[in-house]
Amino acid sequence: MPHADLDPEFIEPLRYYQEDLEKLSCEPQAQEATDETPWIASFMFNCDVPKKVVDGYRAAAVLIDPCWLLTCGHVFGDIFRPEDAPKFEDLDLYVRIGGQQLGTGTVHRFDKVVTNRFRMTEDRSVLWGPVNDLALVRLTEPADAEPAVLADFHGLRVGHRIRAYGWPDGRRGTGRLTRVDTEVIPPESCIGMAPGPGDACVANVASAPIRPGYSGGPAFLLPDDDTSTVPLLTGVVSRGIYGQPETFPGVVTDLTPHLPFIRATIAGSA
């Protein structure tokens, strides 16, 4: 049964979610990443307002081209910003590529951010939350690392197994890159997070849920048979519920409807 302190808005989605968990083919699992992740990236920042911060953590990202990163669009604004956190305009933002421990990896700067019709809506009667939560970021110098490969794909569907990466709780956590293996579930379970067109709802891990620190991290489709052994890059982590007494699902932005935009942006960058 839903927790007594649960926001009424989430009671019905939680009921759907509990039913969906019983149908999962595999239990969601989280563990520190030990596999090769040369394409993983972290957005870090320095800031003097409201207090001095050195090498703070902003969000995760994935290298998809020597000069381009993919992340979520809400990284570049004040959406979900706690009152005591610095404003985006005060951040000196930079990138580290390839390091699994926060604060490691090759340092890069960037000079361009391109979003694909990203917007924030607040009308809960229609849709609430970030829509098209995705951004491309151009590095000032090519990265000397192997990018993740964007795959032609027909979209995330219920039952697909995915693997997402991020740094749970950022600097307040262990600082170690974590990977979560989970499954796409029906969108009714994510009603409280207003999944929009192109969003995929995924089951969470009770012991280490998708929460702040995973935003912008890559999501890969896991092979489901012996014909393919390479996970395919199919999404980026967008958001999850934080501060509720129950574990809720997460939302991943499906890259499929954005592939033409991504490829056109990269091709036109010369």
Q: Would you give an account of this structure?
A:
- The structure is a single chain.
- The protein is mainly beta and 270 residues long.
- It is 7% helix and 35% strand.
- The strands form 3 sheets. It has a 7-stranded antiparallel sheet with strand order 6-5-2-3-4-10-7, covered by helices on one side. A 6-stranded antiparallel barrel has the order 11-12-13-16-15-14. The protein has a two-stranded antiparallel ribbon with strand order 8-9.
- The longest helix has 11 residues.
Short account of what is shown:
By secondary structure, the protein is mainly β. 7% of the residues lie in helices and 35% in strands.
Q: Class by helix and strand content?
A: mainly beta
Overall pLDDT level? 87
The percent range for strand residues is 35-45%
Low-confidence stretches: none
Relevant terms:
single chain, mainly beta, globular, 2 helices, 270 residues, Thrombin, subunit H
Topology at a glance:
Blueprint: H1 11-21, E1 29-32, E2 40-47, E3 53-65, E4 68-71, E5 92-97, E6 106-108, E7 110-115, E8 119-123, E9 127-131, E10 135-139, E11 161-166, E12 178-185, E13 199-202, E14 218-221, E15 232-240, E16 250-254, H2 259-267
Antiparallel strand pairs: 1-12, 2-3, 2-5, 3-4, 4-10, 5-6, 7-10, 8-9, 11-12, 11-14, 12-13, 13-16, 14-15, 15-16
